[in-house]
Design goal:
Elements: E1 3-4, H1 10-17, H2 21-27, E2 29-33, H3 35-43, E3 48-53, H4 55-60, E4 70-72, H5 74-80, E5 89-94, E6 109-113, H6 119-131, E7 136-140, H7 149-154, E8 164-168, H8 171-179, E9 183-187, E10 193-194, E11 204-208, H9 217-222, E12 225-228, H10 240-255
Helix pairs in contact: 1-5, 6-10
Protein backbone atom coordinates (compact mmCIF):
# COMPACT_ATOMS: atom_id res chain seq x y z
CA UNK A 1 0.00 0.00 0.00
CA UNK A 2 1.53 3.31 -1.12
CA UNK A 3 2.05 6.20 1.29
CA UNK A 4 1.53 9.86 0.34
CA UNK A 5 4.27 11.84 2.06
CA UNK A 6 4.35 15.30 0.44
CA UNK A 7 1.79 18.04 1.10
CA UNK A 8 2.39 19.07 -2.52
CA UNK A 9 1.06 15.77 -3.83
CA UNK A 10 -1.70 16.62 -6.37
CA UNK A 11 -4.24 14.43 -4.58
CA UNK A 12 -3.60 16.18 -1.28
CA UNK A 13 -3.69 19.61 -2.90
CA UNK A 14 -7.13 18.71 -4.27
CA UNK A 15 -8.24 17.88 -0.73
CA UNK A 16 -7.02 21.25 0.55
CA UNK A 17 -9.10 22.95 -2.13
CA UNK A 18 -12.20 21.47 -0.45
CA UNK A 19 -11.55 23.69 2.59
CA UNK A 20 -13.09 26.59 0.60
CA UNK A 21 -16.61 26.78 -0.81
CA UNK A 22 -15.29 27.60 -4.28
CA UNK A 23 -13.29 24.39 -4.26
CA UNK A 24 -16.22 22.35 -2.98
CA UNK A 25 -18.51 23.64 -5.70
CA UNK A 26 -15.89 23.04 -8.40
CA UNK A 27 -15.32 19.46 -7.26
CA UNK A 28 -18.90 18.74 -6.20
CA UNK A 29 -17.51 17.30 -2.98
CA UNK A 30 -16.91 18.07 0.69
CA UNK A 31 -14.79 16.74 3.55
CA UNK A 32 -15.92 14.43 6.33
CA UNK A 33 -13.30 14.71 9.04
CA UNK A 34 -12.83 12.86 12.37
CA UNK A 35 -13.52 9.27 13.27
CA UNK A 36 -16.95 10.03 14.71
CA UNK A 37 -18.23 11.70 11.54
CA UNK A 38 -16.78 8.94 9.36
CA UNK A 39 -18.67 6.35 11.43
CA UNK A 40 -21.89 8.40 11.31
CA UNK A 41 -21.67 8.72 7.54
CA UNK A 42 -21.06 4.99 7.09
CA UNK A 43 -23.83 4.01 9.51
CA UNK A 44 -26.28 6.30 7.70
CA UNK A 45 -25.38 4.91 4.29
CA UNK A 46 -24.06 8.28 3.15
CA UNK A 47 -21.80 7.53 0.17
CA UNK A 48 -18.09 8.28 0.63
CA UNK A 49 -15.85 8.52 -2.42
CA UNK A 50 -12.45 8.19 -0.76
CA UNK A 51 -10.99 7.77 2.70
CA UNK A 52 -7.55 9.09 3.71
CA UNK A 53 -5.86 8.11 6.95
CA UNK A 54 -2.49 8.03 8.66
CA UNK A 55 -0.86 4.62 9.13
CA UNK A 56 -1.18 5.12 12.89
CA UNK A 57 -4.94 5.68 12.64
CA UNK A 58 -5.45 2.64 10.41
CA UNK A 59 -3.45 0.45 12.77
CA UNK A 60 -5.56 1.64 15.71
CA UNK A 61 -8.85 1.13 13.85
CA UNK A 62 -8.57 -2.08 11.83
CA UNK A 63 -11.64 -2.92 9.76
CA UNK A 64 -13.41 0.33 10.63
CA UNK A 65 -13.54 1.62 7.05
CA UNK A 66 -15.81 -0.23 4.66
CA UNK A 67 -13.69 0.40 1.54
CA UNK A 68 -10.08 1.07 0.53
CA UNK A 69 -7.99 3.63 2.42
CA UNK A 70 -5.27 5.89 1.04
CA UNK A 71 -2.43 6.26 3.54
CA UNK A 72 -1.01 9.71 4.27
CA UNK A 73 2.06 10.44 6.36
CA UNK A 74 1.25 12.28 9.58
CA UNK A 75 3.04 15.50 8.54
CA UNK A 76 1.27 15.58 5.18
CA UNK A 77 -2.07 14.75 6.83
CA UNK A 78 -1.75 17.81 9.07
CA UNK A 79 -1.62 19.93 5.89
CA UNK A 80 -4.97 18.63 4.60
CA UNK A 81 -6.83 18.52 7.92
CA UNK A 82 -9.05 21.41 9.04
CA UNK A 83 -8.75 20.78 12.78
CA UNK A 84 -5.88 21.90 15.01
CA UNK A 85 -5.39 18.40 16.38
CA UNK A 86 -6.51 16.00 13.62
CA UNK A 87 -7.28 12.45 14.69
CA UNK A 88 -5.86 10.96 11.51
CA UNK A 89 -8.78 10.27 9.17
CA UNK A 90 -10.94 12.14 6.69
CA UNK A 91 -13.16 11.21 3.78
CA UNK A 92 -14.45 12.84 0.63
CA UNK A 93 -18.20 12.81 -0.01
CA UNK A 94 -20.27 14.11 -2.91
CA UNK A 95 -22.29 17.28 -2.40
CA UNK A 96 -26.00 16.38 -2.50
CA UNK A 97 -26.64 18.97 -5.21
CA UNK A 98 -29.84 20.86 -5.86
CA UNK A 99 -32.34 18.26 -4.66
CA UNK A 100 -36.12 18.77 -4.65
CA UNK A 101 -37.92 19.47 -1.41
CA UNK A 102 -39.00 16.37 0.51
CA UNK A 103 -42.79 16.14 0.19
CA UNK A 104 -45.02 17.54 2.93
CA UNK A 105 -46.95 15.08 5.05
CA UNK A 106 -49.26 15.56 8.02
CA UNK A 107 -46.25 15.58 10.34
CA UNK A 108 -43.97 17.65 8.10
CA UNK A 109 -41.69 20.15 9.80
CA UNK A 110 -39.13 22.21 7.90
CA UNK A 111 -36.52 24.74 8.99
CA UNK A 112 -35.58 27.55 6.59
CA UNK A 113 -32.44 29.34 7.83
CA UNK A 114 -31.80 32.62 6.05
CA UNK A 115 -28.55 34.56 6.28
CA UNK A 116 -27.15 32.70 9.29
CA UNK A 117 -23.45 33.47 9.17
CA UNK A 118 -22.24 31.61 12.25
CA UNK A 119 -21.23 28.03 11.34
CA UNK A 120 -22.00 26.97 14.90
CA UNK A 121 -25.59 28.21 14.60
CA UNK A 122 -26.13 26.41 11.30
CA UNK A 123 -24.67 23.20 12.75
CA UNK A 124 -26.79 23.51 15.90
CA UNK A 125 -29.95 23.99 13.86
CA UNK A 126 -29.23 20.91 11.74
CA UNK A 127 -28.52 18.89 14.88
CA UNK A 128 -31.69 20.11 16.60
CA UNK A 129 -33.79 19.44 13.50
CA UNK A 130 -32.43 15.91 13.49
CA UNK A 131 -33.31 15.51 17.18
CA UNK A 132 -37.00 16.25 16.54
CA UNK A 133 -37.10 14.22 13.29
CA UNK A 134 -37.71 17.29 11.12
CA UNK A 135 -38.38 16.78 7.43
CA UNK A 136 -35.53 18.92 6.09
CA UNK A 137 -33.33 21.95 6.72
CA UNK A 138 -33.06 24.55 3.97
CA UNK A 139 -30.17 26.98 4.18
CA UNK A 140 -30.56 30.35 2.48
CA UNK A 141 -28.10 32.36 0.45
CA UNK A 142 -25.74 34.39 2.60
CA UNK A 143 -25.62 31.68 5.25
CA UNK A 144 -22.61 29.65 6.30
CA UNK A 145 -22.20 26.76 3.88
CA UNK A 146 -23.72 23.67 5.55
CA UNK A 147 -21.00 21.55 3.90
CA UNK A 148 -18.07 23.61 5.17
CA UNK A 149 -15.76 21.73 7.55
CA UNK A 150 -16.85 23.81 10.56
CA UNK A 151 -20.56 23.26 9.99
CA UNK A 152 -20.13 19.57 9.19
CA UNK A 153 -18.33 19.10 12.52
CA UNK A 154 -20.90 21.21 14.39
CA UNK A 155 -23.73 18.94 13.21
CA UNK A 156 -22.07 16.03 15.06
CA UNK A 157 -23.22 13.65 12.32
CA UNK A 158 -26.79 14.94 11.99
CA UNK A 159 -25.93 16.19 8.51
CA UNK A 160 -26.12 12.55 7.40
CA UNK A 161 -29.50 11.86 9.01
CA UNK A 162 -31.86 14.25 7.21
CA UNK A 163 -31.93 16.29 3.98
CA UNK A 164 -29.93 19.52 4.23
CA UNK A 165 -30.33 21.72 1.14
CA UNK A 166 -28.58 24.91 0.10
CA UNK A 167 -27.31 27.54 0.28
CA UNK A 168 -30.11 28.68 -2.06
CA UNK A 169 -32.78 31.31 -2.60
CA UNK A 170 -35.50 30.44 -0.09
CA UNK A 171 -38.36 32.44 -1.61
CA UNK A 172 -39.27 29.75 -4.20
CA UNK A 173 -39.15 27.13 -1.44
CA UNK A 174 -41.53 29.17 0.71
CA UNK A 175 -44.00 29.43 -2.17
CA UNK A 176 -43.65 25.71 -2.92
CA UNK A 177 -44.26 24.76 0.71
CA UNK A 178 -47.29 27.02 0.96
CA UNK A 179 -48.66 25.48 -2.21
CA UNK A 180 -48.35 22.07 -0.53
CA UNK A 181 -50.38 23.17 2.47
CA UNK A 182 -47.45 23.91 4.78
CA UNK A 183 -47.93 26.85 7.17
CA UNK A 184 -44.85 29.07 7.10
CA UNK A 185 -44.10 30.67 10.48
CA UNK A 186 -41.72 33.45 11.46
CA UNK A 187 -40.85 34.61 14.96
CA UNK A 188 -40.60 38.22 16.05
CA UNK A 189 -40.58 40.17 19.28
CA UNK A 190 -43.93 41.77 20.00
CA UNK A 191 -46.03 39.43 17.86
CA UNK A 192 -49.55 39.11 19.22
CA UNK A 193 -49.68 35.31 19.28
CA UNK A 194 -47.09 33.18 21.09
CA UNK A 195 -45.76 29.88 19.82
CA UNK A 196 -47.64 28.22 22.71
CA UNK A 197 -50.95 29.55 21.37
CA UNK A 198 -50.21 28.52 17.78
CA UNK A 199 -51.42 25.25 16.28
CA UNK A 200 -48.22 23.38 15.41
CA UNK A 201 -49.89 20.06 14.70
CA UNK A 202 -50.26 21.19 11.09
CA UNK A 203 -47.42 20.81 8.58
CA UNK A 204 -45.17 23.77 9.42
CA UNK A 205 -42.00 25.48 8.27
CA UNK A 206 -40.03 27.72 10.60
CA UNK A 207 -38.23 30.74 9.15
CA UNK A 208 -35.02 31.65 10.97
CA UNK A 209 -33.25 34.94 10.28
CA UNK A 210 -29.78 36.42 10.54
CA UNK A 211 -28.20 36.57 14.01
CA UNK A 212 -28.32 40.38 14.22
CA UNK A 213 -30.63 41.63 11.45
CA UNK A 214 -33.27 38.91 11.60
CA UNK A 215 -35.31 37.87 8.58
CA UNK A 216 -35.25 39.83 5.37
CA UNK A 217 -38.38 41.91 4.79
CA UNK A 218 -39.19 39.73 1.76
CA UNK A 219 -39.27 36.48 3.72
CA UNK A 220 -41.03 37.95 6.73
CA UNK A 221 -43.77 39.31 4.46
CA UNK A 222 -44.14 35.87 2.89
CA UNK A 223 -44.78 34.16 6.24
CA UNK A 224 -48.33 33.01 6.88
CA UNK A 225 -48.07 33.90 10.57
CA UNK A 226 -45.64 35.81 12.77
CA UNK A 227 -45.47 34.49 16.34
CA UNK A 228 -43.47 35.28 19.46
CA UNK A 229 -41.38 33.26 21.88
CA UNK A 230 -42.43 34.57 25.31
CA UNK A 231 -39.49 36.05 27.20
CA UNK A 232 -40.58 37.47 30.57
CA UNK A 233 -36.99 38.19 31.55
CA UNK A 234 -34.79 41.11 30.56
CA UNK A 235 -32.84 39.52 27.70
CA UNK A 236 -33.38 41.34 24.40
CA UNK A 237 -33.37 38.23 22.24
CA UNK A 238 -32.30 34.61 21.94
CA UNK A 239 -29.44 33.10 19.99
CA UNK A 240 -30.73 31.91 16.59
CA UNK A 241 -29.91 28.29 17.33
CA UNK A 242 -31.63 28.37 20.72
CA UNK A 243 -34.71 30.16 19.36
CA UNK A 244 -35.02 27.51 16.67
CA UNK A 245 -34.70 24.76 19.26
CA UNK A 246 -37.52 26.28 21.33
CA UNK A 247 -39.79 26.36 18.27
CA UNK A 248 -38.92 22.84 17.14
CA UNK A 249 -39.40 21.24 20.54
CA UNK A 250 -42.72 23.04 21.05
CA UNK A 251 -43.75 21.59 17.67
CA UNK A 252 -42.70 18.15 18.88
CA UNK A 253 -44.54 18.59 22.20
CA UNK A 254 -47.81 19.58 20.55
CA UNK A 255 -47.71 16.64 18.22
CA UNK A 256 -46.85 14.22 21.02
CA UNK A 257 -44.78 12.15 18.60
CA UNK A 258 -43.86 8.78 20.17
CA UNK A 259 -40.17 8.77 21.00
CA UNK A 260 -39.83 5.01 20.37
CA UNK A 261 -40.61 4.93 16.66
CA UNK A 262 -39.08 1.73 15.25
CA UNK A 263 -37.42 3.65 12.40
CA UNK A 264 -35.45 5.83 14.79
CA UNK A 265 -32.67 5.11 17.27
CA UNK A 266 -34.16 4.74 20.79
CA UNK A 267 -34.05 8.16 22.47
CA UNK A 268 -31.41 9.14 25.00
CA UNK A 269 -32.14 11.47 27.87
CA UNK A 270 -29.68 13.86 29.43
Amino acid sequence: MSLLTSPQNPRLKALRALHARKGRLAAGAFLVETTKLLLEAQASGFPLDEVFATPEWLEAHPGLVAGPVTLVAERAFAAIATTETPDGVLAVAKLPGDRPLPPATGQACYVLADGLQDPGNVGTIVRTADAVAATAVLVGAGSADPFSPKVVRATMGSLFHLPVLGPRDLAPDVRSLQGSGVVVLATALGAERSIYETDLTRPVAWLVGNESAGLTAELRDMADEVVAIPMPGRAESLNAGIATAVCLFETLRQRAIPTNEPSRTPPRTR
